[in-house]
Amino acid sequence: MHEVGLAQQTLEIALDAARREGAQTVRKLCLRIGEWSGVELEALRFALELVTEGTPAEGAELIMERVPPACRCAACDCLFNVAEYDYHCPKCGAESQQLCQGREMDLVSLEVA
Asked: Are 35 and 70 in contact (CB under 8 A)?
């Protein structure tokens, strides 16, 4: 389960940020997770609960936003969501497989005290 490793890395980033701010606790973690990232949300939630136990982030609220896969059309620069692996631009019909989002896992914000 690679979610435990992801949870540990997320915790380390959050705790480093909290220390830089002089904070004692992490109250909230906000993550953006791509639908094609391979990350199972419930497994990550469980792993984060596990790795934060006994740390300044224990009990922190976890917000996870799912990011749909999207491409940017090379022909007309249109950004469009990929539905059922259809990579055709809805604006001009050109095929584009330049995936811009959907595989990420980003810690976008945290709340510390």
From this structure: no
